[in-house]
Design goal:
Elements: E1 4-6, H1 15-21, E2 24-30, E3 33-39, E4 42-47, E5 50-58, H2 62-69, E6 72-77, H3 84-95, H4 103-107, E7 111-114, E8 117-120, E9 125-136, H5 144-150, E10 157-169
Antiparallel strand pairs: 1-10, 2-3, 2-6, 4-5, 5-10, 6-9, 7-8, 9-10
């Protein structure tokens, strides 16, 4: 089954399940070069009068380089309940760097190049996003318990708010 463009209002999704439990891939770049990474933090909603998705990427991630130099990114969600091998692919993409391995080749995911960016054919749905905002978290403003738990010696996240410009679904 292939992905088809749908209206965002037709997308019925529980973000607590799809983002926090099932995870997703953040991808930026095009056929000339892209990277993807697994994430389990993010937001979907309305900001500045637009349908948006917020993704966060640490500065040391290879995907960060692509997010910084491209105006577009995608978030690809998979049906991990009915296709448990997709959770294995997400685990691999989260534990390995695209600097060292071709994640699509290693996981069997098939990239498709659309709208000037990259997503994956096996996804159950994909959001194509145009960056509206990028900024680093200010750790001085973060609750000390959360700061110590999540950041200790790890680099800060950069927050990307993207306008959802297209939605593809199976």
């Amino acid at each position: 089954m292939s992905l088809n463009e749908i209206k965002i209002s037709d997308l019925l999704v529980n973000p607590w399940e799809r983002i926090g439990k099932d995870w997703f891939l953040i991808t930026s770049g095009d056929k000339d070069g892209y990277n993807t990474m697994t994430a389990s933090w993010g937001f979907m909603g309305v900001m500045w009068g637009k349908d948006t998705f917020e993704a966060v990427v640490r500065h040391n991630r290879y995907t960060y380089e692509f997010m910084e130099k491209n105006d577009l990114f995608t978030v690809s969600f998979f049906d991990v309940e009915n296709e448990p091998d997709k959770k294995d692919a997400l685990k691999f993409c989260g534990a390995n760097s695209g600097r060292d391995v071709n994640k699509a080749e290693k996981t069997g995911l098939t990239p498709f190049f659309t709208d000037g960016t990259t997503a994956f054919n096996e996804a159950s749905f994909v959001l194509v996003c145009r960056k509206l905002y990028a900024g680093d978290f200010d750790l001085e403003k973060l609750n000390a318990d959360e700061r110590n738990k999540w950041y200790g010696n790890d680099p800060v996240h950069r927050q990307y708010i993207g306008e959802i410009i297209k939605v593809y679904s199976k």
